[in-house]
């Protein structure tokens, strides 16, 4: 992977507080689904792209750290992403705020959602092992589209709260789809992940609600799953609201990563 388009070292991203954890994270976060999964993805190019080598992943981790990206987003549903990060991160682990998820499993080309207490605990323990760490910075419920039912009628949030008390995670929250589900997550957890971009602003009320409660807000689909016409404008739009903590995007292309960073660098 060529790094010829690298920015100067002083061009680094703003860091924003992550809820009440005492930690700050970069306003852009790197999503890692493409590190371990090339089936059932909704990005341009479709299924079947080649997964990056360990060397490629290591170079990308160095690149993003050099330019201030400190948040990594992964999940059990991202194929081998967790294991690969755990193998490659090494001493860089302490420099990253590591977000993973629970509740969705992806096997044999299909997703399955499980939100029992037993599965949630198993999932977190498995993520700790895969990621080679003794504490996860944030665990999100990888909710189904019926997020209100998931969050209010299953033990998944309660189980994550107990795991936080046990010191296995620093914070927890939910990746949501509805305003009702997003607000519920903001009532009972530290973080809400929601979709927000120029063509989809329906979750803006959740941002305002979460901000009032000092919750972290992570943006997904800020680039419309890779279909944004003007990526730089989309990055600026998705990170502009006062309640946004970080926008997560996925890319294996160093030039695209640097372009997204550059969109937020102020002269």
Structure description:
By secondary structure, the chain is an alpha/beta fold. Helix content is 35%, strand content 19%. It is built from 10 helices and 12 strands. The strands form 3 sheets. The chain has an 8-stranded parallel β-barrel with strand order 3-4-5-8-9-10-11-12, surrounded by 5 helices. A two-stranded antiparallel ribbon has the order 1-2. Strands 6-7 form a two-stranded antiparallel ribbon. Helix 7 (179-188) links the parallel strand 9 and strand 10 (191-195). The radius of gyration is 17 Å and the shape is globular. The two termini are 27 Å apart. Residues 1-5 have low confidence and may be disordered.
**Order of neighbouring strands in the sheet with most strands:** 3-4-5-8-9-10-11-12
Q: Roughly how much helix do the residues carry, as a percent range?
A: 25-40%
Number of individual domains: 1
Beta-strand residue fraction: 15-25%
Question: How do you describe this structure in short?
Answer:
By secondary structure, this protein is an alpha/beta fold. The chain has helices at residues 33-36, 54-66, 81-88, 117-130, 147-153, 156-165, 179-188, 204-212, 231-239, 254-262; strands at residues 15-17, 24-26, 28-31, 71-73, 97-102, 104-107, 110-113, 138-142, 172-175, 191-195, 216-220, 246-250.
């Amino acid at each position: 992977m060529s790094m010829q388009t690298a920015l100067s070292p002083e061009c680094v991203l703003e860091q924003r507080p992550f809820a009440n954890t005492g930690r700050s994270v970069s306003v852009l976060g790197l999503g890692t689904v493409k590190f371990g999964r090339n089936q059932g993805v909704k990005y341009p190019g479709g299924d079947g792209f080649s997964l990056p080598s360990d060397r490629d992943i290591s170079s990308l981790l160095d690149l993003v750290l050099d330019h201030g990206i400190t948040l990594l987003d992964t999940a059990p549903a991202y194929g081998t992403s967790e294991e690969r990060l755990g193998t490659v991160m090494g001493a860089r682990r302490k420099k990253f705020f590591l977000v993973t998820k629970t509740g969705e499993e992806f096997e044999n080309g299909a997703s399955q959602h499980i939100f029992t207490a037993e599965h949630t605990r198993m999932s977190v323990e498995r993520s700790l092992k895969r990621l080679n760490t003794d504490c996860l910075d944030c665990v999100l419920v990888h909710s189904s589209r019926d997020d209100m039912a998931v969050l209010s009628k299953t033990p998944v949030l309660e189980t994550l709260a107990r795991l936080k008390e046990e010191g296995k995670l620093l914070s927890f929250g939910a990746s949501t789809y509805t305003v009702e589900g997003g607000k519920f997550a903001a009532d009972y957890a530290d973080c809400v992940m929601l979709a927000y971009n120029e063509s989809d602003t329906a979750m803006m009320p959740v941002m305002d609600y979460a901000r009032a409660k000092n919750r972290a807000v992570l943006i997904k689909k800020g680039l419309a799953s890779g279909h944004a016409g003007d990526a730089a404008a989309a990055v600026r739009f998705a990170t502009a609201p006062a309640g946004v903590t970080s926008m997560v995007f996925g890319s294996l292309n160093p030039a695209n990563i640097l372009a997204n960073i550059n969109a937020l660098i102020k002269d």
